[in-house]
Structures are given as C-alpha cells and as structure tokens.
Design brief:
The chain has seven helices and two strands; from the N terminus they run αααββαααα. By secondary structure, the chain is mostly helical. The longest helix has 17 residues. The chain is globular, with a radius of gyration of 18 Å.
Amino acid sequence: MRISARADYAVRAALQLAVSPDDGPLKAEAIADAQDIPHKFLESILNDMRRGGLVLSQRGGNGGYRLARPAESISIADVIRTVDGPLVSVRGVRPPELSYTGPAESLLPLWIALRSNVREILDGVSLADVASTQLPPSVVKLSEDPEAWVNP
C-alpha cells in the first residue's frame, strides 16, 4: 500500500481541524502554514473533503473550514477514501473484481487479506485518536515491533 501525498496532506489537514478551537472556522492558509502543505494543493484537497461530507466551508472574512462531524466519528480511512478512493486496489481495480489463474490464483485471497488488515487499522483509528495521541492498543502493539521500523 502506498499513501499518496494527497492522502497524507488530507489527513494532516483534518487533524489540524480536529484540534482547532470551536471559536470559528480555520482558514486554508492557516492549515497550510501549520502543516507545511502547499496552499493551492490544500485548497483542492479541502474541496474534495467538502464534497465528501467531511468538512464544512464558510465564505467571507470570517470564513474557513471546520469538520462536518466530531473528530471521534471520522476515521483515517474516511479521509483517505474521500481524497484517493479505495484503500487497496491492484492496478486501479478493487480486489473482488480481479481474477487469476494457475499459479497466480492464490493472489486474490492475499489481496483480500491485505485489504482487510488495512481496513481494520485505518477504519479503527479516528482523527480524535491520532490528535490525542491515544492510538488503539492493537495499533500501538504493531508499531512497537522493531521490525516494523526497518526497511527491508
């Protein structure tokens, strides 16, 4: 699985909104500056997130963006799917739509298992979890494995 810059920026922007005080919307410029995200790219991402129902936008001098729902109810997977589409695809195709033959036949269950594990982690972690540094124990356990930090 590859996390695109678009998905990374979207999650970081959503996290910035999650910790934003409730005294009004946050301007795109403020999010871009706080997270070191190119402003024009962020505007496009925020528009996708607005169309996807994750953020609300308000125009005007006091305008900006805010989360459309509480941070506890928005998973990291929700953000990634909104800006990048399916979490796991093979050549742009969702695994259940694939078929293989011969020695490659067992690739399909492998891709399905991969998708299941990615979903389990990313659907199971909310913006609030990350923003509060309170990741689920199963995620913490995986990240504490020294081998997880090593590039083969």
